[in-house]
Amino acid sequence: MLKKPQIEEFFARLQKANPNPRGELEYRNPYTLLVAVVLSAQATDASVNKATEPLFKIADTPEKMVQLGEARLKGFIKTIGLFNTKAKNVIRLSEILVQEHDSKVPADREVLQSLPGVGRKTANVVLNIAFGQPTMAVDTHIFRVGNRTGLAPGKDPLAVELMLEKRVPEPYRLHAHHWLILHGRYVCKARKPDCPVCVVRDICQYKAKTVLE
Ligand code: SF4
Fold first, then answer.
1. I need a labelling partner for 86 at 20 to 30 A (CA). Which of 10, 131, 198, 207 fits?
2. Last residue of a domain, one of 104, 129, 154
3. pTM value?
């Protein structure tokens, strides 16, 4: 497991390489961010962005989404996996936001997680990006990077999340999950990590690092 000074150095380097990391999902406000994250479960950000570009032009608030209705929403998102269930969830969560939350996305984990289609990871993404809370939204990339490197080993996403909360130094907390997602997506890839070009290769504890061929 990495030690504190190593973790400091790990994030200092990711920060230097990418000072202002951003997620890759497109959104216009906290509501469209929430919808985009719900749609992104088991789908690529690129496929979600393609579908939401025209969708958010006509439905960027809960009221407008409810007005659009489930059948027409399906027409916009039918290229995304699990679109039937996702359409149902988006309409239902929009109705709840209108009826119970003054049409606003609540900055509250419990309330967010009580909405249809919203799990812990989705709530963490929304709390982080829309409300600036230093949450760790552990997806498949962060889970892998946390375990491989020795940064935050854990048997499941929740264990990795709690470990990151405990171990990531304060100045890096807000952006930590973005750096780790991007690092996992583009460098520390699932099948074959790009260790020879990795900025933290001398810190990382992965035993099966790849080498230049
Ligand atoms: S050295 Fe390799 S395994 Fe370690 S973080 Fe970098 S890409 Fe991943």
1. 131
2. 129
3. 0.92
